[in-house]
C-alpha cells in the first residue's frame, strides 16, 4: 500500500510539475483558457451624427431608449422570495404582448427556447420589437413587476420636429447585422445619402471579471474609445421650414389635393431654406410613408405651365425682342396644322404684349417666340438650366426634357406645356432673375463637422452656374413680374403680400393621362406660383405647386397656392427682419465698442439711449457684446453684454427666437428651444442663478397666419389653351 500510494503521489507530483513548467493540459494552454474564462470585452457604442439646421437646431439625433431583456435561467435567483428570472412564461408573455409589437405566442417561444445543446440560456431578447423602447413605455412595463424582466440602455434615432422636410431628411432605423448585433442604418433621404458620414465607429473595453461578471481587483482595463459620427448642418432654417409645413398642412386638409410641393430658397446663394411636399410622413413612426419615397422637388418631372413664361419673357428682353406697348391679336395662334388658344379660348382682342404677359396669354408667348427665333429660344432655355440636372447635392435628380423636335413643341414650350422640368430647375432658373442675372446652383448641405473636435470636414460654398441674362434684363423682368400682382388685369392678384412688394408668375399646367392626352376640368390641373420677394432686392424665391385640389364651385386654382405663398413669404420676411415698405421710420442708435469697459456705466448709457441691456454674468468688465460696434440698432432693441461670473437668467417673455438663440450662444447655457415665434414660457424662473447643466426649456408660440382674400377679384382661372388640329 505504501508503495502504491507513494507511486501515485510521485506521478501526481510529476504531472503538476509538468503543468507548471509548460502551462499545457491536453494540448491546450491554461493561460489562454483562463483568459477566455475571465477576460471580457464590452462594446462602447458610438453615437450617430446629428442633422441640424443652419442655426444649430436639432433635426435628427440619437436619444436614450431601452432594450427589453428577459432573464430565463433559474440560476439567476439566489433568494426564492426575490426571484430574478422569469418564473411564469405564460403570464409574462401575456403581459408583454400588451406593450410590444409581438404576439403572445411568439414571446412565449422566446421565453422557453433552448440552446442548440439543450441547455437553457441565461437571458433572451425580443429582436426589433424589444428595442428602441421609450422611457415612458419602460416605466409602464416596469410597473407590472414581472420577475426576470430587465432593461438595458440603448439608443434610437429621434426626430423632434415630427413631419419636417421628411422626404429630404429621410429616416434611419435599427437593423440586425450578420453577427447578431444591431446598428442604426439610414434608409431614406439624407440619412441614407450621408449614412457613411453620420455613422460612428464603436469602441471597446477589455477587462477581467469573475464568473459572476464582477470586475476583479487590480485588473487592468484596456479602452478603445468610440468615435461618434460627423454632424451635418443643413441650409434649412427651422423657423421658415415650420412656416412652410404649417401652411401646407392647413391647405392639404382644406383642399385634399393629390399632391403638393413647395421650396423656399435664398437667391443670393442658392441655399434651400425650406422644402416640403404632401403627402408626407412622420420619420419617427414612418406613418404616412406608404407609396411615395421620392423627393418630388428633385426627383419628379412636371409640365411647368405658365411659370415657364418668365423665362420666355427674359429671353425676349435679353435678345431685344420685347416691345411691351406693341400689340398682337390674342385668342388663337396657328402654326402649320395646329392651333393654340388662350385660357379663355377667345382672347381679349388686340392687346399689348405687356398686358398679354399680365393676362398670361399663350398667344403672346407664341408671337414672342416667332420674333426670338426657335434656335435662339432653345439655347436660352438651356442657359437657364432646363434639360439638365442642377447638380444639387442630392442623388436621384431628374433631368426633364426640352421638346424641340417639331415647331409645335417649341411653341408649347414657350408657355410651359409639353416639355418637362423639375421644381428645383425652376428655382435655379429664377435665381438669375432675382440675382441680377447670376444663376446660383441650389444646395442643402451647409457643412459637415467632426463631432469630436468641431472641425469642419466639408464646407459648401455658393456656386454660380452662369449668367443667362444681364442685370438690366433681370431688373426689368422683376418689375413685370410685380405687375402681374398689381395690374388690374394681372392673374396673380391673390398673391399680394401685405407690407411688401412681391412678384411672380402663376401657372396652370395640364396633367397628362397615362395613355396620352390630358385631363380636363378645373380640379384636374397642376396649379403653381413661382415668386420672389421683396421685388427691389429679393431675399426669397418661393415655388408652390398644388396638384388636383378639390375646389368649390366658386373657387379658382390659385386660392390654395396663394394661401401657402402669402403666409410663408410674410412670416419669413418678418422673421428675417426685412422692413415692410409702409413701415414708419424708426429712430436708430449706432452701437459703440463696449468690450473692456465696465458694465455698470455702459448699462446706464444704453438705457438712456432707449436700448435694453442684458448682462450675461455677474457684471464688471465686458468681454463680448452683441450686436457688434458701428451697427445701427433700433431703439428698444436688446443689447447683450457678456461678463465673467455666475449667470442669472433674465425673463425671456416675448423675446424673439433670434434673441433667444443669441443669448444661448453667448451664455453657453443648455437652453432647449421648443416652437417658433416669441417666448411664451420658460422652465426656470427669471433671476435664478444657474449652477448645473440641467436643461432650461424655453417655449415659443408660432405667429398667426395673416391671410385675407380680397372681396372683388378680376382674376380668371388660368387654364392652358388647348391644342386643336387645324381643319
Automatic annotation (TrEMBL):
Localization per Swiss-Prot or TrEMBL: Membrane
Keywords: Membrane
Any one of the GO BP annotations: peptidoglycan biosynthetic process
Domain PASTA: 585-645
Top-level division of the source organism's lineage: Bacteria
InterPro entries, A to Z: Beta-lactam/transpept (IPR050515), Beta-lactam/transpept-like (IPR012338), PASTA_dom (IPR005543), PBP_dimer (IPR005311), PBP_dimer_sf (IPR036138), PCN-bd_Tpept (IPR001460)
UniProt feature, compositional bias: Acidic residues: 713-727
Family: Belongs to the transpeptidase family.
Protein name: Penicillin-binding protein
Keyword Cytoplasm: no
Cellular compartments per GO CC: plasma membrane
Amino acid at each position: 500500500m505504501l508503495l502504491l500510494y507513494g507511486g501515485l503521489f510521485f506521478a501526481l507530483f510529476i504531472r503538476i510539475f509538468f503543468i507548471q513548467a509548460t502551462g499545457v493540459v491536453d494540448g491546450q494552454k491554461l493561460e489562454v483558457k483562463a483568459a477566455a474564462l475571465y477576460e471580457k470585452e464590452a462594446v462602447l457604442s458610438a453615437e450617430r451624427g446629428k442633422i441640424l439646421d443652419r442655426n444649430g437646431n436639432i433635426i435628427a439625433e440619437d436619444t436614450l431608449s431601452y432594450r427589453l431583456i428577459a432573464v430565463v435561467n433559474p440560476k439567476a435567483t439566489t433568494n426564492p422570495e426575490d426571484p430574478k428570472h422569469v418564473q411564469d412564461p405564460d403570464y409574462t408573455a401575456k403581459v408583454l404582448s400588451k406593450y410590444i409589437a409581438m404576439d403572445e405566442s411568439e414571446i412565449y417561444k422566446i421565453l422557453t427556447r433552448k440552446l442548440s445543446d439543450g441547455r437553457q440560456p441565461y437571458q433572451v431578447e425580443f429582436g426589433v420589437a424589444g428595442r428602441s423602447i421609450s422611457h415612458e413605455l419602460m416605466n409602464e412595463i416596469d410597473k407590472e413587476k414581472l420577475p426576470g424582466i430587465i432593461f438595458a440602455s440603448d439608443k434610437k434615432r429621434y426626430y423632434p420636429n415630427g413631419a419636417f422636410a421628411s422626404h429630404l431628411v429621410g429616416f434611419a432605423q435599427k437593423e440586425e447585422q450578420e453577427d447578431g448585433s444591431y446598428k442604426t442604418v439610414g434608409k431614406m433621404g439624407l440619412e441614407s445619402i450621408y449614412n457613411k458620414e453620420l455613422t460612428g465607429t464603436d469602441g471597446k473595453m477589455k477587462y477581467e471579471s469573475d464568473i459572476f461578471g464582477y470586475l476583479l481587483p487590480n485588473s487592468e482595463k484596456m479602452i478603445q474609445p468610440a468615435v461618434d459620427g460627423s454632424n451635418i448642418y443643413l441650409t434649412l432654417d427651422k423657423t421658415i421650414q415650420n412656416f412652410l409645413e404649417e401652411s401646407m398642412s392647413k391647405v392639404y386638409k382644406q383642399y385634399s389635393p393629390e399632391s403638393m410641393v413647395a421650396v423656399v430658397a435664398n437667391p443670393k446663394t442658392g441655399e434651400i431654406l425650406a422644402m416640403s411636399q404632401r403627402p408626407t410622413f412622420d420619420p419617427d413612426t414612418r406613418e404616412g410613408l406608404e407609396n411615395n419615397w421620392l423627393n418630388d422637388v428633385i426627383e419628379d418631372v412636371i409640365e411647368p405651365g405658365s411659370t415657364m413664361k418668365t423665362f420666355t419673357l427674359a429671353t425676349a428682353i435679353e435678345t431685344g425682342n420685347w416691345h411691351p406697348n406693341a400689340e398682337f391679336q390674342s385668342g388663337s395662334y396657328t402654326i402649320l396644322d395646329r392651333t393654340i388658344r388662350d385660357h379663355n379660348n377667345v382672347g381679349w382682342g388686340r392687346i399689348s404684349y405687356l398686358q398679354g404677359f399680365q393676362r398670361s396669354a399663350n398667344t403672346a408667348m407664341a408671337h414672342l417666340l416667332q420674333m426670338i427665333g426657335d434656335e435662339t429660344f432653345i439655347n436660352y432655355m438651356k442657359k437657364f438650366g432646363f434639360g439638365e440636372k442642377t447638380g444639387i447635392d442630392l442623388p436621384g435628380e431628374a433631368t426633364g426634357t426640352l421638346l424641340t423636335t417639331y415647331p409645335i413643341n417649341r411653341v408649347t414650350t414657350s408657355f410651359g406645356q409639353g416639355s418637362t422640368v423639375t421644381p428645383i430647375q425652376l428655382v435655379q432658373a429664377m435665381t438669375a432673375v432675382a440675382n441680377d442675372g447670376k444663376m446660383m446652383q441650389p444646395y442643402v448641405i451647409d457643412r459637415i463637422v467632426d463631432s469630436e473636435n468641431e472641425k469642419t470636414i466639408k464646407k459648401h460654398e455658393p456656386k454660380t452656374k452662369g449668367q443667362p441674362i444681364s442685370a438690366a434684363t433681370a431688373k426689368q423682368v422683376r418689375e413685370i413680374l410685380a405687375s402681374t400682382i398689381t395690374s388690374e388685369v394681372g392673374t396673380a392678384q391673390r398673391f399680394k403680400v401685405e407690407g411688401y412688394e412681391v412678384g411672380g408668375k402663376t401657372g396652370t399646367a395640364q396633367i397628362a393621362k397615362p395613355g396620352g392626352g390630358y385631363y380636363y376640368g378645373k380640379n384636374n390641373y397642376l396649379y403653381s406660383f413661382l415668386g420672389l420677394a421683396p421685388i427691389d432686392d429679393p431675399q426669397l424665391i418661393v415655388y408652390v405647386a398644388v396638384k388636383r385640389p378639390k375646389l368649390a364651385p366658386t373657387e379658382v386654382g390659385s386660392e390654395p397656392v396663394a394661401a401657402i405663398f402669402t403666409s410663408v413669404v410674410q412670416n419669413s420676411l418678418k422673421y428675417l427682419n426685412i422692413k415692410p415698405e409702409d413701415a414708419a421710420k424708426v429712430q436708430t442708435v449706432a452701437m459703440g465698442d463696449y468690450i473692456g469697459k465696465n458694465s455698470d456705466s455702459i448699462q446706464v448709457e444704453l438705457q438712456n439711449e432707449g436700448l435694453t441691456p442684458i448682462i450675461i454674468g455677474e457684471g464688471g468688465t465686458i468681454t463680448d457684446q452683441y450686436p457688434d460696434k458701428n451697427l445701427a440698432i433700433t431703439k428698444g432693441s436688446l443689447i447683450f453684454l457678456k461678463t465673467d461670473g455666475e449667470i442669472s437668467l433674465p425673463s425671456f417673455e416675448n423675446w424673439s427666437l433670434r434673441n433667444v438663440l443669441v443669448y444661448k450662444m453667448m451664455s453657453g447655457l443648455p437652453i432647449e428651444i421648443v416652437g417658433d415665434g416669441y417666448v411664451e414660457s420658460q422652465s426656470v424662473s427669471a433671476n435664478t442663478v444657474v449652477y448645473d447643466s440641467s436643461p432650461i426649456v424655453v417655449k415659443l408660440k408660432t405667429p398667426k397666419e395673416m391671410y385675407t382674400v380680397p372681396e372683388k377679384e378680376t382674376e380668371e382661372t388660368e387654364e392652358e389653351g388647348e391644342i386643336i388640329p387645324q381643319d
